[in-house]
Amino acid sequence: MQLLCTAGLEDLTSAEDHHGFEEALLRCYFSLLAEEGPLHICLAGGFKTMSSAAHQAADLLGCDKLFHVTASDPRKFNDSDSIIGGIRDGEIRLIDL
After folding, report:
1. Distance (Å, rounded) from C-alpha 69 to C-alpha 16?
2. Is the pTM of this model over 0.70?
3. Coil, strand or helix: which one is 55?
4. Which residue of 6, 36, 57, 70 has the smallest Cβ count within 10 Å?
5. Bridge partner residues of 58 (DSSP)
6. Separation between Cα atoms, residue 56 and residue 34, nearest integer Å
7. Residue that wins the pLDDT comparison between 57 and 80
8. Distance (Å, rounded) from C-alpha 44 to C-alpha 52?
């Protein structure tokens, strides 16, 4: 599992911010497509425009799994180890799309 963040992206307050996010998303997506192994895309978190852009990229470029998540206390899961543990323990529930 990889958690990827865009350096310097604090907030999306303008169309330019969103276009910058989309560019970073597509660069990352193409890089991940070049790697071996399955590509699972999670739509949870961020702004609606961010999950919409990720969904659009998944539709156009493909992925092995597209999903959303629910959790009773999402603030508790802030790194890959806590997320993996939350999934394992049933505290994070995956919803296939």
Report:
1. 28
2. yes
3. helix
4. 36
5. none
6. 19
7. 57
8. 10
Report the length, in residues, of the chain.
97
Q: How far is CA 47 from CA 9, 69, 89, in A?
A: 12, 15, 27
Percent helix, strand and coil across the chain, each to the nearest 5: 45, 15, 40
Band of residue 2 on the pLDDT scale cut at 50, 70, 90: low
* One-letter identity of residue 2: Q
Residue 20 amino acid letter: G
- Measured between its terminal Cα atoms, the distance across the chain in Å is 19
Reported for 27-32, long-range contacts at CB under 8 A and 24+ positions apart, including other chains, are 28/4, 29/57, 29/61, 30/61, 32/2
